[in-house]
Amino acid sequence: MKIGKExxxxxAICTSNQETIVVRGLDLCRDLIGKLTFTxxxxxxxxxxxxxxxxxxxxxxxxxxxxxxxxxxxxxxARMTYAASPExxxxxxxxxxxxxxxxxxxxxxxxxxxxxxxxxxxxxQSESLDEAALAVIGEYRAxxxxxxxxxxxxxxxxxxxxxxxxxxxxxxxxxxxYIEIAEAVERVIPGVMKKDxxxxxxxxxxxxxxxxxxxLRALRxxxxxxxxxxxxxxxxxEMNQPIGFxxxxxxxxxxxxxxxxxxxxxxxA
Length: 269
Fold this sequence. Notes:
By secondary structure, the protein is mostly helical. Among the domains are: 32 residues, no CATH class; 113 residues, CATH 1.10.230.10. Helices cover 57% and strands 3% of the residues. The protein contains twelve helices and three strands, in the order βββαααααααααααα. The chain has a three-stranded antiparallel beta sheet. The radius of gyration is 23 Å and the shape is globular. One of its GO terms (cellular component) is cytosol. One of its GO terms (biological process) is carbohydrate metabolic process. Belongs to the citrate synthase family. Keywords: Transferase.
């Protein structure tokens, strides 16, 4: 049974013959290898277009900003997977990426949709930016939805990466509209949510990337791409300085069993 409209698979990304590999209409060996950085190549693959200088600047900055996060759950999952299966580096990387969702790695995409929603409302309702932000944040509160990209367990003031990303965007000459939307959200949150939640990096990333023309629907790819590099670094360290089983031991040592036990059962001291 056919599902979907297409009956013939089509792609505009790559083709080849015996002599030439074509990527987005260009000769891979003649036009791309040694000519483009990896970030330039990624953007070309994604969109079929060469990145403008301002787009490349903020894309590079965003990737650098979120590649490394320390021993967060995704990294621990990867390192423990590698400890159990050292022959499968790819499996360990995959283990670290599988939890990409609304809490970890997915907030940048959600924040981008929030900003787009505010932008659409402002334009359609002829409201001020703060009025549109106030209305949309009010809708989030009414629906009991968290505000993606605001608040941080460690950085109670603005996440320090926010200022760096905003400065790169400004210096590169990228569009500032989404940064203005992000800051409007920060201004109205206290009055709606009754708490002061400041911008974190997951809001800064869509603010700078959307302003530079990066596609909204591909936002989640940025933390996935960045985290892949970070995971490979952690796994290389795991090869040389293994802590995967130590992480597992630390977790099991802290577990408190609260279920029933059979008659006569005595836990180990």
